[in-house]
User: Fold this.
Amino acid sequence: NLQSIAFSLLLLLLADVNSKEMQHGNQTSVSHFILVGLHHPPQLGVLLFLTFLVIYALTVSGNGLIILTVLADTQLHRPMYWFLCHLSLLDMTISSAIVPKMLAGFLLDSRIISFGGCVIQLFSFHFLGCTECFLYTLMAYDRFLAICKPLHYATIMTRSVCNYLAIGTWLGGTLHSLFQTSFIFRLPFCGPNRVDYFFCDIPAMLRLACADTTVNELITFVDIGFLALTCFVLILTSYGYIVAAILRIRSADGRRNAFSTCAAHLTVVIVYYVPCTFIYLRPGSQEPLDGVVAVFYTVITPLLNPIIYTLRNKEMKAALWRLGGRKVVKPH
Assistant:
């Protein structure tokens, strides 16, 4: 069970962090952090709470509906939609790791998060975010096989292969997050404890450390930069072959359907990678725009994914109609 493995590793990480705190003695005196949150006039607190609450509700319901539709409709029991289920689950959990605490800050002015809670939040966010990065690459590879090697697709992307590949993305995300989280929280935190951000993330936590963070910034840049660049290059390479193959399709309808499916995935990839690159390849940045960009990929992107995939995918729209008990009218 991947969740139990990740939870066990997280417990080991917390135990290691606690032991480091004891070794530092009085140097690490911070027992909790205060999340400053998004800078806004006090009178807008209720409005922002309602706005983000609606977005969060739509995110959970939209991604949950995709998972339910794929599981209920046997016509969607194919690798592409299996991976889409994983993407929807990741979007739901990423949003759930960040938004509820943000909502509490807007309405209840509850901005305190414990040291352990901060560790868990940072680990969870990077575990889920890195897994999603690997999953986008896997989805591009799946489309490459389906379009460029259709005769071999069924023999290559078997159910067991899909399961192993999906498990690999989750394990890769776990290891990456353990690496990053352990390096961050090995640093001493002796005050101040005000996190100038709306959740515990690497750039914000590095600014609070009572030690030189040059090595950590370099590790963050190299590690996340290498992973993001490698995945992005693989995705672009896959789509380079895909576009070449689509242009060779003689049927106009065939080209249109192939482009529609791939355009949805490529749109999601761009929406995901551009904000992440802006934040994590500049770990020492303190620009006010960082918070706005972070809201985009933690709150808005998980909402956009189900919209993009359902509106641009005829099979998903037809399956949703069938799930609602209505007949799908096919054009003559």
About this structure: The beta strands are 32-35, 112-114, 194-195. The first helix runs from residue 2 to 24.
